[in-house]
Design a protein that fits this description.
Mean pLDDT: 83
Shape: elongated
Strand content: 5-15%
Number of strands: 9
Number of helices: 41
Largest sheet: 6 strands, parallel
Structural class: mainly alpha
CATH superfamily of one domain: P-loop containing nucleotide triphosphate hydrolases
CATH architecture of one domain: 3-Layer(aba) Sandwich
Radius of gyration: 36 Å
CATH class of one domain: Alpha Beta
CATH topology of one domain: Rossmann fold
Distance between the termini: 78 Å
Low-confidence stretches: 1-20, 732-787
Length: 787
């Protein structure tokens, strides 16, 4: 039988109600409750499952006869009543019934006397027993708390204490903590995991799809009462998936619970602060004072956090806070119901505060929520460059989608921001339409904002040129941006160095793809150093990505190292869905493959393909598909390789100018066809090439492979000879790939052929004798990125 409960504060009835949907076994927490320490403290908000956990532990460990449980009445101030209740409950236990003498109330009987008598009676206690004090935060008597502390320190070791409270209570627990005699279980420990939530719903007869369950656990933050109330509401619901997806703090059962257990318990001043600051996703003391028109907001927020009143600190200094998701839902519902006219005013005040304190994204969002669209548009235009260069691309996208669609075309600056956003989302055509419209409207922009508009235009043109692969235009737009950055009165105050860094990166990337790797490396190095100096990790990340791409053509180990550095930066800052991250994964995968680390390379190339969208960045997608095709070819998957190379062909057709990667592409296609066992189609590819193209080193190697497949080693040797003596140059972007083509050791009487990646100097060229046999079949150490 469970122990008898004295339910002064109705916590027993609440627990029984929430318990009605089934109890989930939590053995890890049970073990901590039964730890051999003097005391266990459960400190967590209302509805965190403290009482349910204790009941299930008592049942599971068969402790009903050895547990005394009391629930403190709301605002209990009478030490005598409290201690007489403790004494009576201890006497109801098996071990206590034979030791503890009965005692009745008397005018001259105080708590100290009762505790001393208890200590005398308990002195001979041998059997293990527990005293559970539930709702300890309601004990509003300093003497009673001091007396409890005395009992905990002097009682025999066989009596253990479990204290359940909504907030930390001032007891001398630091002594126990230092001596290792204290076990603490807090809100984060009591949160339900996904698997525990699944078991809870199963006991209530509710089955939810995995994504819906995940969303519900996230929304409730694992809060036990929220999940139990959801389970009760979902049982027998006609559309449980929809209900779970829309579940919030405004749902009736949750709202009633939070109002009764949290909001109605607060004084009017604190209630007002909670309601007015609920319009914020995060709040500090200064903002709280601004929105309430009073002082002391920070102290109130700290006290609420310490009281586990659904207020969560966000930093170590406890200066920023947020409200539990469901509690925030309830507060906003209450505010809209009691003072709807205040809501836009509060948002406008918040927008001004965030704009003035360097939080542009939050400023824009609050201006939007206030319905002040002109202010929101100006704020976004003013701060877009900083947001973009800071890597907050998805933040900008979310802000843009909140504007009325008509504003994106009627407002020149907003149209320019929308053009950039469309490029990142993969719609080049729409981006160009926005850019063209903004250019037509730019003459009407007021003089005070013209410089800012010029910066937005220059950046938009630069992005479009890069996306289309129009490398000749990139330097022109980059230099225009540089001129704006160097202007005596900069159009973007405080962003001169940011724009210079962006210019250097743009120049370096275009030079990389136009066959100027040395100049590219210099500009990228300067841009990366400047980005680090000015604290722009996103620009530093992009510089690392482009430098790693250059390294692929000559220093594979350094390419891998720089790619890993870029990946680490992206993962640290949350940029793993961006195109440059896909390029970093591609470069790392390629480098690992050329090092022969195939098992490591494959997953990185797959990840690159998932991140890099052909719609958003056709040029980058080309590079990824190219690397995947080379890798597949090296692994003997000719069909997969050919499909990848054909994709490269299609993507190349979308670019404004010929891309360097297309020069050796036909050679790779021929290799794939030869490996596929289709030399006839390889011949047709060869027939479509001009004599000049056939003379390139990459094509000659592909022809040699084709002739070997046709059992014509003599012609293969003749075709390959100019590659081996260096007269037929292998392109600088392909050399690293061809370097993996180790030639098989020739039979006696044949002449060894040098690798095309280290051509024989003309002064020491070796003449191939007729009949010399060479093979392009990879050796065991051959890189998979070979022809």
């Amino acid at each position: 039988m469970p122990p008898k409960l004295l339910d002064h504060s109705r916590s027993g009835r609440r627990a029984a109600h929430l318990d009605s949907c089934g109890v989930v076994a939590r053995p890890a927490l049970w073990e901590r409750l039964g730890a051999p320490t003097r005391a266990v403290v459960l400190s967590a908000p209302a509805g965190s499952g403290k009482s349910v956990l204790l009941r299930s532990w008592i049942r599971g460990a068969s402790l009903a006869d050895r547990v005394a449980w009391i629930s403190v009445g709301r605002g209990e101030k009478d030490p005598q009543r409290f201690w007489l209740t403790v004494l009576d409950e201890l006497r109801r236990t098996g071990p206590g019934s034979a030791l503890i003498r009965p005692l009745t109330a008397a005018p001259d009987l105080d708590g100290w006397a009762i505790v001393e008598r208890l200590l005398t009676d308990l002195a001979p206690l041998q059997d293990q027993m527990w005293l559970i004090v539930d709702d300890l935060h309601e004990l509003d008597s300093a003497p009673a708390r001091q007396q409890l502390e005395l009992l905990m320190l002097r009682a025999p070791a066989s009596l253990q204490f479990v204290l359940a409270t909504r907030r930390d209570v001032r007891l001398g627990l630091h002594r126990l903590r230092l001596d290792g005699g204290l076990t603490e279980i807090r809100a984060e420990d009591l949160r339900f995991s996904r698997s525990e939530a699944q078991k809870l719903f199963a006991k209530a007869g509710v089955r939810l799809a995995s994504p819906t369950l995940e969303q519900l656990v996230k929304r409730t933050e694992g809060w036990a009462a929220g999940l139990r109330l959801a389970a009760l509401s979902l049982a027998g619901h006609t559309d449980p998936e929809r209900f779970a997806a829309e579940f919030s703090g405004s749902e009736r059962t949750v709202a009633d619970y939070l109002v009764a257990e949290v909001l109605d318990r607060q004084p009017e001043r604190i209630r007002l602060l909670l309601l007015r600051t609920s319009v914020l996703d995060r709040v500090n003391g200064e903002l709280a004072d601004l929105l309430t028109g009073s002082l002391g907001g920070e102290r109130v927020l700290r006290d609420l956090a310490e009281a586990n009143a659904f207020v969560v600190p966000l930093d170590a200094a406890r200066s920023w806070f947020r409200y539990h998701h469901l509690f925030a839902d309830l507060l906003r519902l209450e505010l809209r119901g009691t003072a709807p006219e205040e809501v836009p005013v509060l948002h406008e005040r918040a927008a001004d505060w965030f704009a003035g304190h360097g939080f542009p994204a939050e400023a824009v969002r609050h201006a939007q929520l206030a319905g002040n669209w002109e202010q929101a548009a100006r704020l976004l235009a003013d701060h877009w460059t900083a947001l973009y260069l800071g890597g907050q691309i998805m933040t900008v996208h979310a802000l843009l989608t909140a504007f009325p669609p008509a504003m994106l075309t009627s407002d020149t600056e907003l149209a320019l921001v929308a053009a950039s956003d469309e490029l990142t989302q993969g719609s080049l055509e729409t981006a160009e339409q926005y850019l063209e419209q903004a250019e037509q409207q730019s003459a009407a922009v007021p003089d005070a904002r013209r410089g800012r508009t010029q910066v937005l235009l220059a950046m938009g043109r630069l992005q479009v040129a890069w996306t289309k692969g129009n490398f000749p235009d990139v330097p022109q737009h980059a230099q225009q941006l540089q001129a704006l950055a160097d202007a005596p009165s900069p159009s973007q105050p405080g962003l001169g160095d940011d724009l210079r860094a962006l210019t250097l990166l743009s120049l370096g990337d275009s030079e990389n793809w136009t066959g100027q790797p040395d100049r590219a490396e210099s500009h990228l190095r300067q841009g990366g150093m400047l980005a680090r100096q000015i604290g722009r990790p996103h620009l530093e990340f992009r510089a690392l990505v482009h430098r790693a791409e250059i390294d692929l053509s000559g220093n594979i180990a350094r390419a891998a190292e720089r790619s890993r550095q870029a990946i680490d930066l992206a993962e640290e800052h949350g940029w793993t869905s961006e195109v440059p991250f896909g390029l970093a994964c591609m470069t790392l995968g390629s480098a690992l493959a050329w090092q022969g680390r195939l098992g490591e390379a494959g997953p990185w190339l797959q990840r690159a393909g998932r991140v890099t969208s052909a719609q958003a960045a056709p040029m980058s997608a080309m590079g990824v598909e190219y690397a995947r095709g080379q890798f597949a070819l090296g692994r003997g998957r000719a069909d997969e390789a050919l499909a990848a190379f054909r994709t490269v062909e299609q993507l190349a057709g979308r670019l404004a100018t010929p891309h360097p990667l297309t020069r050796p592409l036909q050679a790779w296609i021929m290799h794939a066809l030869v490996r596929q066992g289709d030399p006839g189609r390889a011949e047709r590819v060869l027939a479509d090439l001009s004599d000049r193209r056939r003379g390139r080193g990459e094509i000659r190697i592909a022809i040699a492979a084709l002739r070997l497949a046709q059992r014509d080693p003599r012609t293969a040797t003749e075709v390959l000879a100019p590659v081996l003596d260096g007269s037929a140059r292998v392109g600088w972007r392909s050399r690293a790939a061809w370097c993996g083509s180790a030639l098989r050791r020739p039979r006696p009487g044949t002449v060894a052929a040098r690798s095309p990646c280290s051509p024989t100097p003309r002064s020491t060229q070796t003449t191939q004798r007729p009949g010399t046999e060479v093979s392009l079949r990879p050796s065991r150490s051959t890189s998979p990125m070979t022809g």
